[in-house]
Amino acid sequence: MSETIQTLLSESRTFAPTSQFTAHANLKDPSIYAHALADVNGYWENWAKELDWFEPWHTVCEWNLPDAKWFVGGKLNACYNCVDRHVEKGNGAKIAIVWEGEPGDTLSLTYSELQDRVAQAANALKSLGVGKGDTVCIYLPMVPELAISMLACARIGAVHSVVFGGFSSESLHERINDAGCKIVITADGGWRRGSIVALKKAVDDALEMGTPTITNVLVLERAGDPGRMQENSTVRDYNRGTWKAGRDVWWHELVSAQSKDCPCEPMDSEDLLYILYTSGSTGKPKGIMHTTGGYLTGCYATSKWVFDLKEDDLYWCTADCGWVTGHSYVVYGPLANHATVLMYEGAPDTPDKDRFWRIIEKHQVTILYTAPTAIRAFMKWGTEYPERCNLTSLRLLGSVGEPINPEAWMWYHEHIGHEKCPIVDTWWQTETGAMMITPLPGITKTKPGSATHPFPGIQAVVLNDAGQEITPDYVPGTTYGEAKGGYLAIKGTWPSMLRGIYGDPERYKNTYWSRFPGYYFPGDGTKLDEDGYFWLLGRVDDIMLVAGHNISTMEVESALVDHPAVAEAAVIGKTHELKGQAISAFVIIRGGYLESTGVSAEKLVNELKDHVASKIGPIARPDDVILSGDLPKTRSGKIMRRLLRDVAEGRALGDTTTLADPAVVASLKDRYESQEG
Ligand code: 6R9
User: Fold this and answer.
1) How far is the CA of 306 from the centre of ligand 1 (A)?
2) What is d(CA 149, CA 339) in angstroms, rounded to the nearest whole number?
3) I need a surface site. Which of 186, 408, 555, 595 has the fewest CB within 10 A?
4) Full set of structural domains in the chain with CATH
5) Which value, to the nearest 10 degrees, does the dihedral of the CA atoms of residues 439, 442, 448, 449 take?
6) Non-local CB neighbours of 34 within 8 Å, separated by 6+ positions
7) N- to C-terminal Cα separation, the chain
8) Rounded to two decimals, what is the model's pTM?
9) Atom 4 (ligand 1): residue with closest C-alpha?
10) pLDDT (tens digit, 9 = 90+) per residue, 156-196?
């Protein structure tokens, strides 16, 4: 970007927490922001004291940019804090995990039962020669054994590297070798949209490509369990792949035979807890490293305050444990808080598009944490699906993964929250480990589309091109003057910050610490409005430069989604001779809109261009609007604008390996070429 980002869209609706919500909230005193800022280390130290430590730390924080150490000298165990400590305090009878498989099978585990299962799995790992410091690759569907495997690793001090079950054998192969994993834990399959994802087969293929460090494959029988699927021996055999005696071991044979007694290994606060690969938009995946004490402190604190977790909540984070959201907010944060966590295996539209709402009604879910990509799909499908179900158990809603457009926020608020649930739009990254910019539901007056303020103890600032701070630290009541757009950056360190990229310290420095010396640069653009609210504008690589104006793709997308016809939009800048870049918009129309209004597609395209021009200004009027059936997304649901730029600029498509469905761009390319002409 040649100049600081201009922000044009404005949103003035505000939603204060109800007095009833505030009265019962875990946190209601806004002075916490100033207190945390006045003594950041003391503030985090108080949080760390809410965990159980085997040995205390001698130093809260050692910070030699870009290397941080937190709670130095302290010893603890993440699994002990998530499971055993609750049981030892007499609270083992509470349900820890409620699980529902896609075919409708369910399982509940109390904290005591979870302790037994984790201990058995941990002993099984030991019997396979896995010990402290070894790395275990976990490639499982969203079944309880996924959380159990992560906790079992943590229990014995092994490092886990979870690979999302939707990744191909090539991706798995690359990740296994980069981390030097000793074993792989997988399943014969998992359910997704009524079919079986053959995970064991993918592991076989990955191992065939050469994985010198792997000694064993521990295989859970999930898809082939005769109680849960049609008896079809061909399918069963296929899913098992090629069984290699000596290498492959069944979970039900090895794990169930183990003792339920397995002590938690005392770990140094800075010992590695896990590696998680994040693809980014280009290049080789980065193995993000998280350590034990600081990471757990960050997950614990944010879960308690942002989700306002209470003993009687039923909390559901819809993310897969293959992503960081599943690490921090399915497993470590909520379990450290003694919460009851719901896990669901399958797709939101199986057997019908009301599956999420049925789950909420059936299990009486009180807190729902999901992603804008899911919310936009629900908008596209229409309100009839949530209307079929009773959603009155819900009391808090959350969003993560992408900017949430104001209209998607409003839809979530009205049709899911029934205007009574606060929405926490939480900005953070794999690298930050825990939420960084987020409302506090008993305190913050929210604005649709804004992640609001940095979590207490986090110093988020806006920088201009020269790397100067153009905004003060957030303290309620500060006067901010006019809205300012620029680069989001974080000052100093925080406990759950990544400790580097596995095996590549140079890349760590270059990626996060060199663009703005002295700051962590997450790569996102942001606006700070006149009330001190952060509006995340997407990745800076996606920001457009149109006739000398930096325009955020996110703002144009939000203006499009504001039109009643639009369910979802992706906007890019394509090279233009005069303007530098011209705006192209790919738009998904809400189900039944054209039919019910009788508007022609051609007329709608013009209406949409006018709509953007009137919401933002003539400068943001798109040159092209392409009506599209789908958008290219990563497997975690983020729109890949880079590929849309390739389409719009008529280039051969770049790397599509991280796409959820590569067919989408190919068909878009055809459509674009025919509509544009
Ligand atoms: C947790 C997670 C991180 C990137 C991040 C940003 C985008 C995430 C957001 C958001 C706006 C939010 N992002 N949450 N943008 N508002 N509430 O998603 O981690 O997969 O590493 O992605 O996602 O661009 O930089 P990760």
Assistant:
1) 16
2) 19
3) 595
4) 2-112+260-538 (3.40.50.12780), 543-676 (3.30.300.30)
5) 10
6) 475, 476
7) 30
8) 0.92
9) 429
10) 999 999 999 988 899 999 999 999 999 999 999 999 999 99
